[in-house]
């Protein structure tokens, strides 16, 4: 019997089995209930299926886009001045713009399908966090950014480029969740008891429902109006390649909090 529960804000899937225990004499002795946690298995199966879908879409759709764009651009250059029809310029521009949109979507699928494995090297994490926040400070004056870090953050084995991409995606999602004014807080801490570095990205935006938390890191799921919902899927892949974990929780009193833990 399948069972879906939310435990500490984390959706989980279980398979529940019931078995009756009977003695050799036929006397009923009780019932054994077994819970099989299928959450990670289901996630892995969906990820494998989506990688194959992404690979096929990227291969089949990408090839025709370039000749469509070049043909529209050639028509515009050759006949725009001769025809002098606003509808002609409008239509050719629409073709070019929408091909670019499709190209961006195909690039997302291609990145997901062929995402390279991590190449970790000894690296300091705090400069990556600071560089990520610096990309957004001036462009979002109504959002308050803050970084809190312990002095005892050890050196980690990281693929610097991939971890920075993951941080950019997390901060970008935090900004998108904020309506107008708000805050994005990043924190770094080292837990010597479990020998892991914890990264938290918190915002005071609209938050994430429990139903959305269940599928947040899966392909083709997004709370945004644009894109294919692969950003957080790629983040999850990066963290998994670093033998880490990522989860999302409610940020009290408002917003969401993404928690990443990477082993030292």
Molecular structure report:
The protein is α+β, with helices and mostly antiparallel strands and 264 residues long. The protein has three domains: 2-37, no CATH class; 41-113; 121-263, Histidine kinase-like ATPase, C-terminal domain (Heat Shock Protein 90, 2-Layer Sandwich), CATH 3.30.565. Helices cover 45% and strands 28% of the residues. The chain is built from six helices and ten strands; from the N terminus they run βββααβαββαββααββ. The chain has helices at 39-83, 86-113, 126-137, 160-177, 210-215, 231-241, and strands at residues 2-7, 10-22, 28-37, 121-123, 143-149, 156-158, 182-191, 196-203, 245-250, 256-263. The strands form three sheets. It has a five-stranded mixed sheet with strand order 5-7-8-10-9, covered by helices on one side. It has a three-stranded antiparallel sheet with strand order 1-2-3. A two-stranded antiparallel ribbon has the order 4-6. β2 (10-22) and β3 (28-37) form a beta hairpin. α1 (39-83) runs antiparallel to α2 (86-113), α3 crosses α4 (160-177) and α4 runs antiparallel to α6 (231-241). The longest helix is centred in the N-terminal third of the chain and has 45 residues, at 39-83.
Percentage beta strand? 25-35%
- Low-confidence stretches are none
| Shape call | globular
- CATH H-level homologous superfamily name of the largest domain: Histidine kinase-like ATPase, C-terminal domain
Write down the CATH class of the largest domain.
Alpha Beta
Number of helices: 6
Please report the total strand number as a whole number.
Answer: 10
Question: What separation lies between the terminal Cα atoms?
Answer: 39 Å
Order the strands across the largest sheet as they lie in space. 5-7-8-10-9
Radius of gyration (Å)? 24 Å
Q: Return the string of H and E elements.
A: EEEHHEHEEHEEHHEE
Question: How much helical structure, as a percent, in the residues?
Answer: 40-55%
From the 3D structure, determine the CATH topology of the largest domain. Heat Shock Protein 90
CATH architecture of the largest domain: 2-Layer Sandwich
The class by helix and strand makeup works out as: alpha+beta
Largest sheet: 5 strands, mixed
């Amino acid at each position: 019997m399948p069972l879906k529960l939310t435990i500490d804000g984390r959706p989980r899937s279980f398979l529940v089995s019931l078995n009756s225990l009977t003695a050799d004499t036929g006397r009923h002795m009780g019932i054994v209930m077994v819970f099989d946690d299928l959450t990670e298995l289901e996630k892995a199966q969906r990820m494998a299926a989506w990688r194959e879908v992404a690979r096929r879409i990227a291969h089949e759709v990408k090839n025709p886009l370039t000749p469509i764009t070049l043909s529209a651009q050639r028509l515009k250059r050759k006949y725009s001045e001769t025809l002098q029809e606003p509808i002609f310029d409008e239509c050719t521009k629409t073709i070019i713009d929408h091909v670019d949109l499709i190209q961006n979507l195909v690039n997302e699928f291609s990145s997901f399908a062929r995402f390279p494995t991590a190449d970790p090297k000894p690296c300091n994490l705090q400069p990556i966090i600071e560089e990520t926040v610096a990309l957004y400070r001036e462009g979002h004056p109504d959002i308050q950014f803050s970084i809190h870090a312990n002095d005892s953050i050890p050196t980690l084995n990281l693929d610097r480029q991939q971890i920075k991409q993951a941080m950019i995606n997390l901060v970008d999602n935090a900004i998108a969740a904020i309506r107008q004014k708000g805050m994005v807080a990043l924190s770094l801490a080292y837990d010597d008891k479990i020998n892991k570095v914890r990264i938290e990205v918190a915002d005071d935006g609209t938050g994430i429902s429990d139903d959305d938390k269940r599928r947040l890191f899966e392909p083709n799921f997004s709370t945004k109006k644009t894109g294919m919902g692969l950003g957080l899927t790629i983040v999850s892949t990066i963290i998994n390649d670093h033998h880490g974990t990522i989860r999302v929780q409610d940020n009290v009193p408002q917003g969401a909090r993404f928690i990443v833990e990477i082993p030292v």
